[in-house]
Amino acid sequence: MKKVILASAIALFGMVSAQESETPGFVKGDTFITGAVGFTNSTQGEVKNNTFTIAPSVGYFVSPNIAVGVRAGYTNMNETDKTTSITVENESDTFAVGAFGRYYYTPASRFSIFGELNANYGNQKFTNTVGGVSTDAKFNAFDVNIAPGVNYFISKNFALEATWGVLGYSSFKQDVAGAESQDNFNIGLDLNDLSLGLVYKF
Questions:
Q1: In this structure, what is the dihedral angle of CA atoms 12, 13, 15, 19, given to the nearest 10 degrees?
Q2: What positions does the domain Outer membrane protein beta-barrel occupy (predicted)?
Q3: What is this structure's pTM?
Q4: Residues 63-110: pLDDT tens digits?
Q5: Distance in angstroms (rounded) separating the CA atoms of residues 193 and 51
Q6: What is the DSSP string of the chain?
Q7: Is residue 110 a contact partner of residue 152, using CB atoms and an 8 Å limit?
Q8: What's the half-sphere exposure (Cβ side, CA atoms, 13 Å) at 21?
């Protein structure tokens, strides 16, 4: 399923006071906001899943072609399974922080291509409840990714953004003594890795 990113810039727009640039595109000194705000609800038979995500990002152009930034995120997932006589519930809360760098080709024009390198750290609390009895587990995660993207300005300050595919490494480990990490390398270029978003520049 495609991941459609709804920019947190929309929610933050009313909080930002800034003058519009004269022309579309990015120049040195520009700051931009993007990110994800979303809620999904799915039902398959007796299994129901609700997921809420908020993940704003802020970037700054330190040179005509290079932008650096930070991001943070929170995701809550709740799943209920009633396929048997005993109800099973799974809930997780995930917090993440990260940093990224981008190199833009023709950033001062309406259309540009960029490559992004990002590194992220997160921790997750997972609760499994079976028949009213709960057990908790905590996990730590780290990942590094490289992804290409495109940017197209639809007005002086708003742009559409798309990224797809990933070349990355991730490590996932339970937060207990002696636990072994699960390490993965990933290369993906299919449409399931497509992310669409909106960027606000000020």
A1: 140
A2: 9-202
A3: 0.77
A4: 999 999 999 999 999 999 888 888 889 999 999 999 999 999 999 899
A5: 18
A6: --EEPPPTHHHHGGG---PPPSSSS--TT-EEEEEEEEEEEEEETTEEEEEEEEEEEEEEESSSSEEEEEEEEEEEEEEEE-SSSS-EEEEEEEEEEEEEEEEEESTTSSEEEEEEEEEEEEEEEEEEEETTEEEEEEEEEEEEEEEEEEEEESSSSEEEEEE--EEEEEEEEESSTTPPPEEEEEEE-SGGG-EEEEEEE-
A7: yes
A8: 22
pLDDT tens digits for 111-152? 999 999 999 999 999 999 988 888 999 999 999 999 999 999
The two tokens of residue 77 are 């997932």
Could you tell me the two tokens for 44?
């398959």
The CATH architecture annotation of domain 3-201 reads Beta Barrel (2.40)
